[in-house]
Amino acid sequence: MATDEQSPFSDLESSLKRSAAALREADIPFLLGGSLASWARGGPETRHDLDLMLKPEDIERAVAALGDAGMRFEDPPEEWLVKVWDGDTLVDLIHHPKGTPVDDALIERGEVMSVLGMEMRVMALEDVLVTKLMALDEHALRYESLLAIARALRERIDWDDVRSRTTQSVWARAFFVMLEGLGVVPEASPTTGGHETRVRVLTPRSSAAANVG
């Protein structure tokens, strides 16, 4: 996922082209993920690192293919991704994002799009948001990019799907409160879990009634 360091957007474009070409040549399926997946659909421009989603079993081959293309490998302490560097541009190869596994189903949900003149699968917007929301915690709690994506692409996102898949995260629930306040999504209707709620009102018995019988 994104770091605080930024690269010129032209560098990200170049690295995406080089990475996609190398993975395609090696016949390795992948998804363009992260903020670039929203940018490809008209969302805000990003200057953070490049996220590519790959199945865990394809990571070693992907690292080798990108190494053959002149990129250098870095093994970070995080267990859910590996990193390669194309010059000064960081490319994250993500194999275990939070919220959804990278498998054939995730890749098939991606939309085949022309990005920078190359056809590639781009991660579904709902999956982008789910993985970003589920990655939030009290030590990494930044909503700026999420809000920018939501406001730019609100009509293209299945919000019910995103909400239902992230409801266990307090940070995701807070995000939806913000979206409701901003008018991006309608306020959620309170539910009773599918069960009718009955309230029994107790009133004091009158003294007369208390003395009867």
Automatic annotation (TrEMBL):
InterPro entries according to UniProt: NT_sf, NTP_transf_5
Keywords annotated in UniProt: Transferase
Domain of life: Bacteria
Stored SUPFAM superfamilies: Nucleotidyltransferase (SSF81301)
Molecular function in Gene Ontology: transferase activity
Protein name listed in UniProt: Putative nucleotidyltransferase-like protein
Source lineage: Bacteria, Bacillati, Actinomycetota, Thermoleophilia, Solirubrobacterales
